[in-house]
Amino acid sequence: MYAIIEESGGQRKVTEGEEILIDLYKGGEAGKGDPVTFDKVLVIGDAGGSAKVGTPHVGGASVTAEVIEPAVKGDKIDIHKYRPKKASRSKTGHRQRYTLVKVTGLKG
Fold first, then answer.
1. What tens digit of pLDDT does each residue of 35-93 get?
2. How far apart are CA 14 and CA 1, in angstroms?
3. What whole-number distance in Å separates Cα of residue 26 and Cα of residue 28?
4. Closest CA to 39 of 21, 54, 57, 25
5. What Rg do the C-alpha atoms of the chain give, in angstroms?
6. 21, 104 Cβ separation under 8 angstroms
7. How deeply is 22 buried, as exposed, middle or buried, from its count of CB atoms within 10 A (0-12, 13-18, 19+)?
8. Residue 65 CA, distance from chain mean position
9. Of the candidates 82, 84, 66, which has an alpha carbon nearest to the alpha carbon of residue 30?
10. Residue 70, exposed/middle/buried by CB under 10 A (0-12, 13-18, 19+)?
C-alpha cells in the first residue's frame, strides 16, 4: 500500500515501514517515538492498481509516523558571490535541519 502526501509545500510518495526526512518537527524538540500524523493525503492506493484520488484530499485518510531522530542535519550547501571588477567575493554555507520519521501506518 502507498500514499502520496502533501508535506512542507511538496508532494511525497510513502509506503509503510519507510524512513523519510521531513522539515524540522516541533523545532527539534520532539522526542524519539513521538507520533506524527499527516492528514493531507492526496492519493492512497494498493499494489493491485486501485487507488483513491482526492479532490484535493482523500476524506478520512491519514498517514501515521513515529519520530526516529528529532534533528538531523542535511548536506552542506556552499553559496559563492562574486562581483566582477569590484574585488568583492564572499562565501557562506547552509545546512538545513530535518526530522527523521518512520511511516507506521496508512489509513484510508
1. 999 999 999 998 888 889 988 999 999 999 999 999 999 999 999 999 999 999 999 99
2. 9
3. 5
4. 57
5. 19
6. no
7. middle
8. 11
9. 66
10. buried
* Number of domains composing the chain: 1
Which residue range(s) make up the domain with 35? 2-107
* Cell, residue 80: 559563492
Question: Measured between alpha carbons, how far apart are the two ends of the chain, in Å?
Answer: 10
State the DSSP string of 29-46.
TPPTT-EEEE--EEEEE-
pTM of the entire predicted model: 0.82
SS3 content of the chain, % helix, strand, coil (to 5): 5, 65, 30
Residue owning grid cell 507520533: 35
Compute the distance between CA of residue 92 and CA of residue 80 in angstroms, rounded to an integer: 7
User: What residue type is assigned to position 40 of the chain?
Assistant: K
